[in-house]
Amino acid sequence: MQLAMIGLGKMGGNMSARLLRDKHAVVLYDHHADNVAKYTALGGTPAQDLGEVTKQLKGRKIIWMMVPAGKPVDDTIDKLLPSLAKGDILIDGGNSMYKDTIARAARVKAQGIWFVDAGTSGGIWGLENGYCLMVGGETEPVKACEPIFLSLAQAGGYAHVGPPGAGHYVKMVHNGIEYGLLQAFAEGYEILAASSKYPSLDLHQIAELWQHGSVVRSWLNELAVLAFEKDRHLDKLKGFVADSGEGRWTVAEAIEEDVPAPVITLSLLMRLRSRQEDSFAGKVIAALRNEFGGHAVKGS
């Protein structure tokens, strides 16, 4: 099939490469010309701007957007809409908030344009291993795009999960679960690293061991094996953990639906703590413990 890919970063670029390898015709656009050139060399068709993207597409236009959530998605849609015709399809494969997706789908449908949301998981490994695609949208455009989804996904890794917004909703919760899993592994390995009883524990050895028959064996722990192999004590890293929104949205959704989600909530809060060189709240607690009990404090 022919489609356009807008946004050729780590995800969009690898997805384009996988599609080209499966003989799809891909029109390529990115703000960085080097990214366009890289995937043009693999057989893609370059576009210099969004206007050229739509001109290069013949017949029904299918455009996959891999741009940051929020305003960049709306800006891209606004620039594309004047060049689209009834029946054309926009796919948002980024991590957009599902409520925004519902609103976008309604907005473009009023002009006869279909909107599909494709929650995409697989990271940089998706090129070789295939992606997991959680797709939301109306049946007609999703069916029309199935050859694309099936090329990108690994076997069993594609499902049409519901109407517009459902794909991003499922991906949001998926990423919230990811927050909790990552935090649990992080805390476990920190306990091992901090052990005064067994100070010579080899975290790489233990991570590799856990991949064989253990109930915690997983892809995330497999990645821990790789990380500890490169840097046994992670000395080259700073413990700053960013978040791109999905954990916050999952916690907000849990509150909205009256669902207790303490693990995901606390894992999100720990990410916020990771960005502080020192915690003012910690200082307050230290000060109060010193005041009421004379407990020792450390100077800055």
What would you report as the Rg, rounded to the nearest angstrom?
A: 23 Å
Major β-sheet strand ordering: 3-2-1-4-5-6-7-8
Tell me the distance between the termini: 62 Å
- Give the low-confidence spans: none
How do the SSEs run, as a string of H and E?
Answer: EHEHEHEHEHEHEHHEHHHHHH
Give the class from helix and strand content and strand pairing. alpha/beta
Helix proportion of residues, in percent?
A: 40-55%
Mass-distribution shape: globular
The total count of strands amounts to: 8
Main sheet overview = 8 strands, mixed
Mean pLDDT: 95
Number of helices: 14
Q: What proportion of the residues form beta strands (DSSP E)? A: 5-15%
Oligomer: single chain
Sequence-ordered SSE layout with sheet pairings:
Elements: E1 2-6, H1 10-21, E2 25-29, H2 33-40, E3 45-46, H3 50-56, E4 62-65, H4 71-80, E5 89-92, H5 98-109, E6 114-121, H6 126-129, E7 131-136, H7 139-144, H8 146-152, E8 153-162, H9 166-194, H10 203-210, H11 219-230, H12 246-256, H13 262-274, H14 280-293
Parallel strand pairs: 1-2, 1-4, 2-3, 4-5, 5-6, 7-8
Antiparallel strand pairs: 6-7
Helix pairs in contact: 9-12, 9-13, 10-11
What does this 3D model show about the protein?
The chain is α/β, with parallel strands linked by helices and 300 residues long. The protein is 51% helix and 15% strand. It has 14 helices and 8 strands. It has helices at 10-21, 33-40, 50-56, 71-80, 98-109, 126-129, 139-144, 146-152, 166-194, 203-210, 219-230, 246-256, 262-274, 280-293; strands spanning 2-6, 25-29, 45-46, 62-65, 89-92, 114-121, 131-136, 153-162. An 8-stranded mixed beta sheet has the order 3-2-1-4-5-6-7-8, with helices on both faces. Helix 1 (10-21) links the parallel strand 1 (2-6) and strand 2 (25-29). Helix 9 packs across helix 12, helix 9 packs across helix 13 (262-274) and helix 10 packs antiparallel against helix 11 (219-230). The longest helix is centred in the middle third of the chain and has 29 residues, at 166-194. It is globular.
